[in-house]
Amino acid sequence: MKKSILILLSVLLVIAASSCALSAPRKSNHSDLPDPSLFRQQDRGDFFIETDNCYYYANDQKIYFSSNDELAFYLLCNKPNCTHNDENCNAYTGFGLGYWNGHLYGAILFGETPYFAQIDLDGNEHRKFADIEMPLNPAGTAGGGYDFYFHNGYVYYNVRNEGLNAFFQTNLATGKTERVLEDLLRGDTWIRSGFHFIDTKFYFVLWEEDGSYVMYGGDTETWEYRRIRDWPSEIRSWMVEGDTHYYYASDRAIFCEYDLTTGEEKTFSQQDYHGGAANYDDDYIYLTTWDDDSFGNMGLSIFDRNYQFIQRIDYQPNQDLLYDAQDKLIFTDLPSQKATKYLPKSAIGTGEAELLPIENPYSYR
Fold it and tell me: Which of 342, 341, 321 is closest to 44 using CA atoms?
């Protein structure tokens, strides 16, 4: 009986993953890549990928997938007798997950030579694609902390290791790797809040040797950069659209827009509660809020892009917004980071908005 179930599950996984991979792309405002058109690496830095008909999601160094229409996350592995506990599992992705031109990419840091793996969309084939650089710090040791960002046919990564702060780009078409921003990212600096990419532009916050934080911006075609502004500590999360820097200032409990050209800040919609991470899409702003310093009564407050309050949805304990998809919000439970609930965007503002459970199939481990 167990053998029959395993064979059936393998067939279902192949069919489901193939249907995700072969779907025709459609136009989207979230489009970041030509293939598939709905791909958008999440601004929050989570490794969650949305294609035309499918979601791919990295959790605990493994890939899960679900169709967009019927949420149920399955491990991307149909290997018989696989324990799913090591790098031999088809779903293993290591410490990153990206998409480009019909393949997934993972960052494998274990072993003598770390590398990027190119992975078929059904998980069946893993190929070593390019080495991950391991530069030496002033003491002559390699390794350290790595952050990965997949964008527009490249994987960018930052390496930090006691006096070393290096940044690299690897072309996902050729495998060629280059070190960039070497004159700016010295060993006595570190990147605070990750890189944000919009087309060829990039933005990040750098901790300087004098203890200050500074926002920089530049272009990936030339790698020229400029200092934009001193960085207020009250900014928890942020995004850039055009020439405007959007953020929520937690100390003042207020939404802000900063003109990158003039340096002028405008404020909107003063709040009477504590707020943390704000996520923006074309239609809404999603702000995680709570009542007091002990994080009581946590929930998600939803505003339109004119900062008009629409509604608030209460959270269960240890709940958090995981991903802002095209037509729904997906939520996770902490600390497991498993996707457990979702909210259709069509329900926002109707009086019927509530978090719905995501099916938890036996293959989700």
Answer: 321
Per-residue pLDDT of the chain (365 residues; tens, 9 = 90+): 333 333 333 333 443 444 454 332 222 333 333 344 344 444 445 688 888 888 998 988 999 999 988 899 999 998 888 988 888 899 999 988 998 888 999 999 877 789 999 999 989 999 999 999 999 988 999 888 899 999 889 999 999 998 899 999 999 999 999 999 999 998 888 887 678 888 899 999 999 888 899 999 999 999 999 999 999 988 888 889 999 999 999 888 899 999 999 999 999 987 766 667 788 888 999 998 876 666 667 889 999 999 999 998 888 777 888 888 889 999 988 777 888 899 999 999 998 888 999 987 655 55
Rounded to two decimals, what is the model's pTM? 0.85
Evaluate whether 277 touches 234 at the Cβ level (below 8 Å): no
The three-class DSSP label of residue 20 is helix
* Helical ranges in 155-214 per DSSP H: none
Contact 39, 33 (CB under 8 A): yes
Cα dihedral 356, 40, 14, 109 sign: negative
